[in-house]
């Protein structure tokens, strides 16, 4: 119908209907675009991953693993973030943070030079520090003993702080760079180096695989946090802190198991889009029916996408829960195997000794050594030295107790042919400072080689027995060591010139538990208990009796010769 034949009233009605229809089309399209944009508003965050096991690392299939990866996965599942992991070295990850290639880098040290360049979270899931390890029987027990020694390290913050410490200005070290912490452990076990700097987080997980000792010293305690690039929204850092705060339990540990997560979005989360002006006026009345069909199709698609998003979110929650349950099941299986031939209470006590007690004692040792060096007032300095001596005894007691518990859980050992003469001479060399301090000598005149099939722990037997002989003998005396060939065994005797052991106490010297009730016996008894356990694992024997030629005590160890 031509508009020129309509009455004025009919013409106005037609214009109103046309305007209303055009406005309806515009509003419908805007609503659909807003809805579609809101359904796909998941935030993608790129996360840097570098080798720092067990805090963060990446498996061959590209999956990020470790404490910080699991914490971030839990937060992302709760907040609706999609994480994309970007691997690299630590320096490469820092470069990617600088140029905005990644948004987040987990497990970085909270130090001023890092804080100047990036946005750091404030909540700390884990505090790491450097630990110095050495092989058992090395004779290294303090930082001063490292002078002139070979020290392996990785290029991390602990090595940098150790090397730049002012207290080391008068000490000379021979540093050896390693590609991994496991490489340092292997070099130490093979005695190819004297010491190695390992992170606490890595050492506490893998130190049980090696027969090594810690030097009671702490290097640079550092809070490990998340770093964000300057281009990343600072609100993300605040959200990570808020979620970590909720994960921290009453005892201060991190709990990142999945909770019920509300995946609903508020109006503030929806992205908005304003159509261009030309589009508002380009939609004609003639496409009305087609537009209705499009509206219904898009509305249905939007509903499907919403339900798909909800299902995917629930699937992610289930995947995280299943993964956490699998981890828990594996840990329970391993724990069950560990408890198979031992008492649960003893294992718990051993774990407390080796981790919860030795760490604070080690921290005390490091700070006391530092305070002694900088303190000038004699009275305070003597008090600090008293603390250092007693703390050293405490550390020795804890380490011996943990070592004894570890030996008690062993059923057998691996053996190889070693020369007892070389082992005894090496022990004597390590104990020379103690001998010189008391002006004592050792009389050991081997007539040849003494090959025997033994484990390297046999060195602890002679180290304990000779150390006790030095400790309980008067200054200026002589310790006699003799090796006799008796049938298919070697009989090694170690004799001192001390005050001796009463006959009624001799049956208890190797038994720590019976010895605990004999208050008049000197020492804790852990060293001799370790001696007895190692000799038993070698199917040998150890005895104690009085010297016949003079006052003093003789310990006799019998070991099998090498079978030809």
From TrEMBL:
Signal peptide (residue range): none
GO biological process: osmosensory signaling via phosphorelay pathway
Keywords, in A-Z order: ATP-binding, Coiled coil, Kinase, Membrane, Nucleotide-binding, Phosphoprotein, Transferase, Transmembrane, Transmembrane helix, Two-component regulatory system
Domain Histidine kinase: residue ranges: 352-563
InterPro entries, per the entry: BphY/WalK/GraS-like, HATPase_C_sf, HATPase_dom, His_kinase_dom, HisK_dim/P_dom, HisK_dim/P_sf, Sig_transdc_His_kin-like_C, Solute-binding_3/MltF_N
Catalytic reaction(s) noted: ATP + protein L-histidine = ADP + protein N-phospho-L-histidine
Transmembrane parts of this sequence: 23-43
Top EC category: transferase
Keyword Lyase: no
Coiled coil ranges: 301-345
Enzyme Commission code(s) on record: 2.7.13.3
MF term (GO), any: protein kinase activator activity
ATP-binding among keywords: yes
Domain of life per record: Archaea
Name the record gives this protein: histidine kinase
């Amino acid at each position: 119908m031509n508009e020129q034949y309509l009455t004025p009233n009919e013409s106005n009605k037609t214009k109103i209907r046309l305007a209303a229809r055009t406005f309806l089309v515009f509003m419908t399209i805007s609503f659909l675009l807003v809805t579609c944009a809101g359904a796909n508003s998941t935030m993608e965050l790129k996360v840097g991953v570098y080798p720092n096991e067990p805090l963060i690392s990446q498996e061959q299939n590209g999956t990020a693993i470790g404490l910080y990866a699991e914490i971030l996965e839990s937060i992302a599942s709760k907040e609706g973030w999609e994480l994309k992991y970007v691997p690299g070295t630590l320096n490469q990850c820092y470069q990617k943070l600088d140029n905005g290639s990644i948004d987040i880098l987990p497990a970085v040290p909270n130090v001023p030079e890092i804080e100047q360049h990036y946005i750091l979270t404030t909540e700390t899931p884990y505090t790491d520090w450097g630990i110095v390890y050495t092989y058992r029987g090395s004779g290294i027990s303090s930082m001063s003993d490292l002078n002139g020694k070979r020290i392996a390290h990785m290029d991390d913050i602990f090595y940098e702080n150790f090397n730049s410490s002012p207290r080391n200005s008068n000490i000379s070290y021979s540093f050896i760079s390693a590609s991994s912490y496991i490489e340092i452990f292997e070099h130490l076990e093979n005695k190819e180096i004297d010491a190695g700097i390992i992170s606490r987080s890595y050492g506490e997980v893998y130190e049980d695989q090696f027969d090594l000792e810690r030097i009671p010293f702490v290097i640079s305690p550092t809070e490990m946090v998340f770093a964000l690039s300057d281009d990343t929204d600072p609100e993300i850092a605040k959200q990570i802190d808020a979620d970590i705060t909720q994960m921290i339990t009453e005892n201060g540990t991190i709990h990142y198991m999945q909770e019920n997560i509300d995946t609903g979005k508020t109006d503030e989360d929806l992205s908005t889009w304003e159509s261009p002006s030309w589009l508002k006026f380009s939609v004609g009345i003639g496409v009305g029916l087609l537009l209705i069909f499009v509206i219904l199709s898009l509305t249905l698609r939007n509903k499907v996408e919403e339900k798909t998003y909800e299902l995917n979110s629930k699937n992610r929650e289930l995947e995280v829960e299943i993964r956490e349950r699998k981890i828990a099941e594996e840990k329970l299986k391993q724990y069950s195997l560990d408890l198979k031939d031992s008492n649960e209470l003893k294992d718990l006590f051993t774990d407390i000794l080796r981790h919860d007690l030795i760490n604070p004692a080690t921290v005390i040792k490091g700070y006391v050594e530092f305070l002694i060096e900088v303190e000038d007032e004699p009275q305070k300095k003597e008090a600090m030295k008293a603390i250092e001596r007693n703390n050293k005894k405490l550390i020795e007691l804890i380490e011996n107790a943990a070592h004894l518990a570890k030996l008690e859980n062993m059923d057998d050992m691996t053996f190889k042919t070693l020369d007892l003469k070389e082992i005894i001479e090496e022990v004597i060399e390590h104990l020379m400072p103690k001998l010189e301090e008391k002006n004592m000598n050792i009389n050991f005149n081997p007539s040849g080689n003494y090959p025997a099939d033994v484990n390297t722990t046999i060195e602890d037997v002679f180290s304990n027995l000779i150390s006790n002989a030095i400790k309980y003998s008067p200054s200026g005396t002589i310790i006699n060591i003799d090796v006799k060939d008796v049938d298919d065994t070697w009989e090694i005797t170690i004799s001192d010139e001390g005050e001796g052991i009463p006959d009624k106490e001799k049956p208890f010297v190797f038994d720590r538990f019976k010895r605990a009730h004999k208050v008049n016996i000197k020492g804790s008894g852990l060293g001799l208990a370790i001696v007895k356990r190692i000799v038993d694992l070698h199917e040998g024997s150890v005895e104690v009796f009085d010297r016949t030629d003079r006052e003093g005590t003789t310990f006799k160890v019998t070991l099998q010769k090498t079978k030809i």
